């Protein structure tokens, strides 16, 4: 467990007192006139009331049993501005989920809105398959310009159907065609999407069990996050992981065929913001190069500035063979793509296609995000705000916090049972039930957060990259209050 100071900073304490007083108030009649969604209007609100309404009732009656977020976040949202959203009951919330990290510029960013309006009014065809348009040309140019070093000199782009899963499927096809091999190596804790091929590489067995599948051509290896090292070795698990992989690829009796590709997230999102060790990623890059295996980095959630670098793999100073991008790539609109070295551009015309891969609105709004990265260094702001948020979370004095981890504004707070038995590395058992109670307590106080990690024990923080220091103070104050209320 990290050492934490015994009190939160004065500024946060003052906000915490205000929030506590706010939540002791009884619900009042709310004004019906629209108000600006900002910190002032947020702090002026009484405690939020989480109650069903006609929207939620109709959703329950009409929508699939596979729906997930409304079960934990029973909200019917009406408006969004910046990091704030308002529900149909005129209750304002701080959104630290941001559509699972999609909304890099937050809700209703004026530059995004202007780009969408301009595109609609330009009469450009809204969908163009893979035909070229001026918007697409500018989009691809800007995307290549974001690549580090000289990667753009040898890069190709494949636009995909508008979800990350389809881009993952494209990356798998590309690797198999380029190498002539079938198998893929992935890691425990991984999340690469919900389509059949992507699902086979998922660490979580829940969604896979219902289909009685684990993927005959997929090999899962332990992901060596040192504080909860799967080898029980701590930091030494990094070298052990690389040694195991090297041995597996060179031992004629390993029983494992050489894969077409290794796919990994530089920060595992759904696993609870587990950052890959840079030394380990460098070793992974070295092994894949020597054995002629494609290295696919899944940047769907971590990419586009979220971790303090434009791409999360840049923290390890490596160049992958394939980059998978989506979410923030479309500026809030659905879009996905893969970027890869042209040495592997061996598939035939039509080998991967999709009706909506020419989404002009998404390219227009995605251009706005990329301009903010290139011209305004939004990723550096995300890095600075992420460092502050992590520091302030580590300062929360609570024995139910086992770990604060992640990079930039992709953070996780692991909740543990303080009365449980420690493992060989000294970790307390993860406590998903307590994390769930904290999530609900935070929601009543106006903070939207999501859970992830083993047993759903990790509070995940994925706020828009535009979040400001004073807003982080309020987020930490609310979360502190929520943790204390259930600890």
Automatic annotation (TrEMBL):
Domain of life of the native organism: Bacteria
Keyword Transferase in annotation: yes
Enzyme class: transferase
Cofactor dependence: pyridoxal 5'-phosphate
Protein name stated in the entry: Diaminobutyrate--2-oxoglutarate aminotransferase
Record family assignment: Belongs to the class-III pyridoxal-phosphate-dependent aminotransferase family.
Pfam family membership, one: Aminotran_3
E.C. no: 2.6.1.76
Keyword field: Aminotransferase, Pyridoxal phosphate, Transferase
GO molecular function: diaminobutyrate-2-oxoglutarate transaminase activity; pyridoxal phosphate binding
């Amino acid at each position: 467990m990290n050492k934490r100071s015994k009190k939160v900073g004065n500024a946060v304490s003052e906000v915490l007192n205000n929030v506590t007083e706010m939540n002791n108030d009884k619900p009042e009649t709310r004004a019906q006139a629209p108000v600006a969604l900002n910190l002032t209007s947020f702090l002026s609100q009484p405690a939020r009331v989480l109650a069903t309404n006609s929207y939620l009732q109709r959703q329950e009656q009409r929508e699939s049993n596979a729906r997930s977020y409304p079960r934990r976040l029973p909200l019917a949202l009406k408006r969004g501005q910046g990091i704030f959203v308002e529900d149909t009951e005129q209750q304002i919330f701080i959104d630290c989920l941001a559509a699972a990290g999609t909304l890099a510029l937050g809700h209703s960013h004026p530059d995004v809105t202007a780009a969408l309006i301009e595109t609609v009014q330009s009469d450009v065809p809204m969908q163009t398959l893979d035909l070229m348009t001026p918007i697409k040309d500018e989009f691809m140019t800007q995307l290549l310009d974001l690549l580090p070093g000289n990667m753009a000199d040898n890069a190709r782009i494949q636009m995909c159907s508008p979800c990350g899963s389809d881009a993952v499927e494209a990356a798998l096809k590309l690797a198999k065609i380029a190498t002539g091999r079938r198998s893929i190596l992935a890691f425990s804790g991984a999340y690469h999407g919900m389509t059949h091929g992507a699902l086979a590489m998922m660490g979580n067995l829940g969604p896979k069990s219902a289909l009685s599948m684990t993927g005959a051509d997929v090999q899962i290896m332990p992901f060596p996050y040192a504080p909860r090292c799967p080898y029980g070795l701590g930091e030494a698990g990094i070298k052990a992981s690389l040694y195991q992989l090297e041995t597996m690829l060179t031992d004629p009796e390993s029983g494992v065929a050489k894969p077409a590709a290794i796919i990994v997230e530089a920060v595992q999102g759904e696993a609870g913001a587990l950052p890959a060790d840079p030394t380990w990623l460098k070793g992974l890059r070295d092994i894949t190069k020597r054995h002629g295996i494609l290295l696919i980095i899944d940047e769907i959630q971590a990419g586009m500035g979220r971790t303090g670098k434009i791409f999360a793999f840049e923290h390890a100073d490596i160049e992958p063979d394939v980059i998978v991008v989506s979410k923030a790539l479309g500026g809030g609109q659905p879009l996905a793509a893969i970027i890869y070295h042209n040495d592997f551009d061996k598939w035939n015309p039509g080998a991967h296609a999709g009706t909506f891969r020419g989404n002009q609105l998404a390219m227009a709004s995605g251009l706005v995000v990329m301009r903010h990265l290139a011209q305004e260094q939004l990723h550096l702001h995300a890095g600075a705000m992420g460092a502050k948020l992590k520091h302030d979370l580590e300062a929360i004095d609570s024995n139910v916090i086992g770990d604060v981890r992640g990079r930039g504004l992709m953070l996780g707070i692991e909740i543990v049972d303080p009365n449980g038995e420690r493992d060989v590395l000294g970790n307390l058992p993860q406590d998903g039930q307590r994390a769930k109670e904290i999530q609900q307590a935070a929601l009543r106080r106006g903070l939207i957060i999501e859970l992830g990690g083993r047993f759903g024990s990790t509070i995940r923080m994925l706020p828009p990259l535009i979040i400001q220091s004073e807003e982080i103070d309020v987020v930490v104050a609310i979360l502190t209050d929520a943790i204390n209320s259930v600890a």
